[in-house]
Design a protein that fits this description.
CATH architecture: 3-Layer(aba) Sandwich
Distance between the termini: 34 Å
Structural class: alpha/beta
CATH superfamily: Decaprenyl diphosphate synthase-like
Function: Catalyzes the condensation of isopentenyl diphosphate (IPP) with allylic pyrophosphates generating different type of terpenoids.
InterPro entries: UPP_synth-like, UPP_synth-like_CS, UPP_synth-like_sf
Number of domains: 1
EC number: 2.5.1.-
Largest sheet: 6 strands, parallel
Order of helices and strands: HHEHHEHHEHEHHEEH
GO molecular function, one term: magnesium ion binding
Bound molecules: 3-methylbut-3-enyl trihydrogen diphosphate, magnesium ion
Helix content: 40-55%
Cofactor: Mg(2+)
Shape: globular
């Protein structure tokens, strides 16, 4: 269906240039959603995958340039082993089962996070999906897996340090751009809109450097309940904001 015919009314009222180009989402509340339905926590994660599909497809349809999803934090390894095992299983399955949807939607997938610690079979399937989608030209889907904002900065500092020791870079030449180029997100624009589901008012170590001027939108809805209408509501609210970047006008 051509976008102009199917664009929801709430969004049609917002000029396109006021839409966010990059949306980042902290997909939280899977466990709480499941517990409220008397289901095991893992059932919430399973249902969360359906929300990922809905959201990626809608972003692709709307022509959102980038979608960054917080799938697993560097702190989530503290959870009980059976939950971790299930999350790894889901990630592997997602990479295999969603490949067709990813290709049909022209999504270009990239992983951001530390590879060490992620099981080999998950990385293998992830790499296949990344490789297969590498020439797609639609929405960029950045999956934050084993991601921590602080460890990302540590890794960037180590790599900048190595360049300085090798004499390739002078300390005085280090700028904000140098740091940005050494982060996992090198080459990607910063998020415009940061969405968090399930109501917590915190960042939980997500994209610490990149969200310095992102607009934050929090919903009480848990991630398994996130749907197209919730995404539209976030976009409409974002479009009303006056981003000043420290200046006086938007
Ligand atoms: C988010 O849901 C998914 C991951 C962190 C992997 P949670 O599992 O954190 O759900 P709650 O916050 O406990 O409800
Ligand atoms: C953030 O959610 C991580 C992901 C959504 C992957 P958490 O559930 O881990 O965050 P906290 O522990 O409530 O801060
Ligand atoms: Mg949580």
């Amino acid at each position: 269906m051509p976008l102009t015919e199917s664009i929801p009314e709430v969004l049609a009222a917002v000029p396109r240039e006021r839409w966010p180009r990059h949306v980042a989402i902290i997909m939280d509340g899977n466990g709480r959603w499941a517990q409220r339905q008397d289901l095991p926590r893992i059932e919430g994660h399973r249902r969360g995958v359906a929300s990922v599909r809905r959201t990626t497809e809608e972003c692709a349809r709307l022509g959102i340039e980038q979608l960054t999803l917080y799938c697993l934090s560097s702190e989530n390894w503290k959870r009980p082993q059976p939950e971790i095992d299930f999350l790894m299983h889901l990630l592997e399955q997602y990479m295999i089962e969603e490949r067709t949807t990813i290709m049909e939607n022209n999504l270009r997938v990239r992983m951001i996070g530390r590879r060490e610690g992620i099981p080999g079979q998950v990385l293998r399937e992830l790499d296949k999906t990344v490789e297969m989608s590498s020439t797609n030209s639609g929405t960029r889907l950045n999956l934050a897996i084993n991601y921590g904002g602080r460890s990302e900065i540590v890794d960037a500092m180590r790599s900048i340090g190595r360049e300085i020791v090798a004499g390739e870079l002078q300390p005085a030449e280090v700028t904000e751009a140098t740091i940005a180029e050494h982060l996992y997100t090198a080459g990607l624009d910063d998020p415009d809109l940061l969405v968090r589901t399930a109501g917590e008012l915190r960042i939980s170590n997500f994209l610490l450097w990149q969200i310095s001027y992102a607009e934050i939108w929090v919903t009480e809805r848990c991630w398994p309940e996130f749907d197209e209408a919730t995404l539209h509501a976030a976009i409409v609210d974002y479009a009303r904001r006056n981003r000043k970047f420290g200046g006086l006008n938007g």
